[in-house]
Amino acid sequence: MALLTERKIAMSSQPETLLTPEEYLALERKSEIKHEYFAGEMFAMVGASKRHNLIMSNIIRILGNQLLDRPCNVYPSDMRVKVSATGKYTYPDVVVACEEEKFDDAENDTLLNPAAIIEVLSESTEAYDRGKKIEQYQYIDSLTEYLLISQEPYRIEQYVRQSNKEWRYFEYHRAEDSVRINEIGCELTLKDVYAKVQ
Prior knowledge:
Blueprint (H helix, E strand, L loop, with lengths): L1 E6 L13 H8 L6 E4 L2 E6 L3 H17 L5 E4 L4 E4 L4 E3 L3 E5 L11 E2 L4 E5 L5 H5 L1 H6 L7 E5 L6 E6 L5 E6 L5 E4 L4 E4 H4 L5
Parallel strand pairs: 5-8, 9-10
Antiparallel strand pairs: 1-3, 2-3, 4-7, 5-6, 7-9, 10-11, 11-12, 13-14
């Protein structure tokens, strides 16, 4: 998904008004489009391309099959994630949660403890996914793996959290390469991730 524009919610002829997280969630749960939220502001999301959706679908299928008999769930981009330390709400392209999932409230639509997050890059979001977004994700203590996937075959970048809270970087470029996501015990082979992607 791509960020469309930054949008502050304001009352007509009144100074701009920042939203509380509760106000954001109340609006978001009624909205026909998705919005990220940070520091009182909502950011509209736009739809994804065919290529983007194919890659996402492939990843969800591959991981879902590998996790079928394990205590982990794979969620598409409709699962909202909250970065509790900063108050940011976002929609990763693919998120994996294991063991006891924790949610922001009884609605169970805002995950607090993802184990792995995967973003499919697009021209409009690449700088954001590589910069501000990864800065935010590093505040999630449960997160151990962050993957960035190019829409052009073949390129997957992997960030793996170390015990000292530093992150190691890996890059994969060949169709036969496999990306091991250790925390959830899964592998993504690049040729499978890019299946049917022209």
